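for the writeup, i need someone to sanity check this before i put it in the appendix. the sequnce is what the collaborator sent (i think, or maybe the updated version? ugh). structure was predicted straight from it, no edits. if anything looks off just tell me and ill rerun, i have time this weekend
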Amino acid sequence: MFPKYYVNLFGGAVFLICFPIINERPPLALAAVNITHLPGFEGALPFHLETGYVKVDELKGVELFYYFSESERNPAEDPVLLWLTGGPGCSAFSGLALEIGPLKFKVEKYEGKLPSMIYNPNSWTKFSSVIFLDSPVGTGFSFSNTPEGCITGDLSWSEHATIFLRKWFIEHPQFISNPLYISGDSYAGKVVPVIAYNVLQGNEAGQHPMLNFQGYIMGNPVTGTTVDFSSRVPFACGMGIISEELYHSIDRNCNEEDKSSSLCVKNMQTFDQFLSEIMIAQILEPICVVALAKSKDINTRKRSMEEIRTNYLTRPLVPNIKCRTYAYYLMYYWANNNVTRDALNVKKGTVVEWQRCNNLQFNVDLNNNIEYQINLTTRGYRALVYSGDHDIVIPFVGTKQWIRSLNFSVLDEWRSWKVGGQVAGYTVSYNYNLTFATVKGAGHTAPEYKPKQCFAMLSRWISHKPL
């Protein structure tokens, strides 16, 4: 369904159902709950955290789970960000505890005790409120009461997220007037502009409540255009990963009309071999296990309920503790601890096993999002597109290429932007309020690799200041 390395890195290794495997139906939607303490975090949380569910499909019983962290500065006026994690199928808890949220894991060898968490001083909640949404259905703690509800795709994900927003703001009227930004990274970048457009259409149709949409944010985003992945070859050549001879051979033999020729297949096998030797999310980091579920056939359609109950858990592979991905490994044990689930107010019986990234029954039913972006930006809404410049999953050179295809005029020429007197990346601004920025040394999920720099980038941009 998706390019080989994209799935291996961000999708689950097994098929996981998104509806309860218990005989009883789960309870009705719970009210939002304020969380003052979390297992593994010493003392009271120094920020406001809320969790809850919003039902987005009454007929199919689809309920999306969210984490909401209020701005630590001025929640009455600061922007509200909806944050979506990619995959598709990766929990928004990754965004909260690995990227832009107020928590992060203390990396210590796991020996059966609940992993410890600490405060993230570079959280974007220093200047904005953030809704971390487990979406689409089947992601994180989100679920459906019916098998039919588990089938999702680009368009249903976008529709569900839009329904979620309006229902969430109805229950949180104090934030309706705050500026709203739709944001996300990786595969979520494909649906971010669609959700934004849906919000605008709802506003224009007079739907309640009227949301104060201001713009959107995408990090190393998938757009659906061929350049998302075709740009890997020139990027790899420019970074010295492959030879110029292989680059030219691929360019010559793998044209858009026919990629099945024997020469193209041979070239791409060689290319894939080079990629298999590096950490493609950040090409300078040591190759590490990604800490996803082990490959294991747990297709529930072929097994009894009793077998599922007793043998369902598929613990992830164990990375070296020196690897960045060891935090992913700790997340698994933290989120699957009953004490944690009770603290988060997760509905019992709805998600037997939490995985950071699940495989979903997902339909790629949107060609690309370029027209949505043009529709939004040419109407005056703001857009920030940023890329970690050492990511080969969605290389920045491809992102630059589709941005150029918009034919927007350059307002502020390519220049460096700095943090602490040092170059943190490069940026260019276009008319129609579009800003593109690279983050120097960052990988696929840029704030995970360069938190201080991304904190500065977003705090400046969202305050309408130059990067």
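The chain has two domains: 4-224+286-363, 242-276. Confidence is low (pLDDT under 50) at residues 1-16, 22-29, 294-312.
thx in advance!!
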